[in-house]
Amino acid sequence: MIKFKIELLKEWVAKWRSRYNPTDTLAEHFMKKGCCPDCGSEEMYEGPSGGMCTNVTCANPECGSKFNLGLPIMADRIGKPMPLKK
Ligand SMILES: [Zn+2]
Q: Against a cut of 0.70, is the pTM above it?
């Protein structure tokens, strides 16, 4: 898997946000905060992608939440939120 900075994602999102309004709260979170909604990590592993969507996995070893991102239109959680150990 390729590790990527979600900053890159935000750049892409910035190009599109003037054209589309996020209707999805998860997508909105990624667009506004640019980090994992569960733990705040800004590093993600990029997984397989198809079409406009990309699967990402949080790089925080204690989190590991997975999302299917098709920003800025949609963001779906894959599986359930991981409980955080703090
Ligand atoms: Zn996370």
A: no
Give the Å distance between the CA of 27 and the centre of ligand 1: 15
Please give the distance, rounded to the nearest whole angstrom, from the Cα atom of residue 43 to the centre of ligand 1: 8
In 3D space, the residue among 78, 31, 30, 28 whose CA is nearest the CA of residue 57 turns out to be 78
Residue 69 CA to ligand 1 center (angstroms) comes to 14
Burial state string for 17-50 with b = 16 or more CB within 10 A and e = fewer than 16: beeeebebebbbbbbeebbbbbbebbebebeeee
What is the rounded distance in angstroms from the CA atom of residue 83 to the CA atom of residue 86? 10
Diameter of the chain measured on Cα atoms: 39
Q: Mean pLDDT, 10 residues at a time, over the chain (86 residues)?
A: 65 59 68 87 84 86 89 72 62
Domain locations along the chain? 2-78
